[in-house]
Amino acid sequence: MQGSEEDERLLVQRSPSTPALECSSEDGLLHLKKSSTPVWAWGLLVAAVFAVSSAAVTFTMVSEVPPITLAAWRLQLTSVFLGVGAAFQFRGMPSADRWRTLQQARLLAASGACLCVHFGLWVYSVQTTSLAHSLLFVSATPLFLAGGAWLLRRPISRGELAGTAVGLAGAVLLATAAARSDAQVTVRGDLAALTASLCFVGYLLVGQRLRSWMPAFVYAFIVTALAALMLTLGALLFERASLGAAGLHGAFGWAASAHYLPYVTYLAAGPGIVGHTGFNTLLRYMDPLLISLACNSEPLIGSVLGWALGLLAPPGLWTYIGGSLVLASTFLVSLAAAQRQQQQRQQQQRQQQQQQQQQQQQQQQQQQQHQQQPERHQHLQQQQPREQQQQQQEQ
């Protein structure tokens, strides 16, 4: 992705109650550029994580639906819900931002493609490999984010790397604890989960860049609608879904099915609106690494929900240990990122002070030069009559 020099460093001013936001270039992995995180954002993060954690349990209840079709169903209705909020937000956008939204068509399409592949492959992975392997590989998003930042030499502290390692260890414990003895492990299912995790990285990074100025519902609607369209086409091509059929084999089968409609409605409203749209909102205030680490608690929350609904066995000791590690990693990364951010602000302040001092010195030098010019002129004026007198005396 290539951007203009303007996109490399963009300062967006919001309302007085919201701190200034600094957005990096397109390869700006792991820049925590917000001066502070609002208190309400943490509450939204908790609600979003709980919402997306319930998706796996819901998918289990309708596991007979082909994976691409099921993923398409979820995003189809989510797009309908998002369209209402997007219409109001788009009307309130300045004309310059509307035109700018159209100019970002490539990035929006890339984000939609990442979301499409992520959902399609993740649902496919859950249905074709063990739950332990699926959760383990799909939780590799923080590893990709931290590794990408290190390779690109972007700012990332040791504390963030340590927190990422703790979070991954917790994810491994959670995935292992959730394993089922009768589940069959397949290489294609593991690769599907790993690819889904990588695609989620692209989805987060594009969202971080565009959400610095684009309203949440406008961005989420465009991306989700594009992903829903791609998944629907995939269901028609690869799973032989029918446009007019109702139920299991219909590309829009949920709409005419009394059995599937409640499940899809919840997937769209809960994990879709509260979950993913909540994450899109938080990308303006939080780093993608922090959000992805918080998502690693999904196996713990999903296991508890599954146990409460009678679908899974009670969570064991390792589940609680892994969940505690994930929560600890979220705290560590948040604290380390805040410290790094403060150091960056202090360094920027020092640089600004140095620049101001240099400017003052230049101004003083210019003033001295201006003062010296009249003195030289007077000296020349005084010297000319003397030279004339000397010439007259010589004559």
UniProtKB/TrEMBL annotation:
Residues 346-395 are annotated as: Disordered. Keywords: Membrane, Transmembrane, Transmembrane helix. The chain crosses the membrane at residues 39-61, 73-93, 105-125, 131-152, 161-179, 185-206, 218-238, 258-277, 289-311, 317-338. The keyword rRNA-binding does not apply. InterPro entries: EamA_dom (IPR000620), EmrE-like (IPR037185). Residues 41-175 form the EamA domain. GO terms for cellular component: membrane. It comes from the Eukaryota. Residues 346-372, 380-395 have a biased composition (Low complexity). PANTHER family: ACYL-MALONYL CONDENSING ENZYME-RELATED (PTHR22911), EAMA DOMAIN-CONTAINING PROTEIN (PTHR22911:SF76). Belongs to the drug/metabolite transporter (DMT) superfamily. Plant drug/metabolite exporter (P-DME) (TC 2.A.7.4) family. This is EamA domain-containing protein. It comes from Chlorella vulgaris (Green alga).
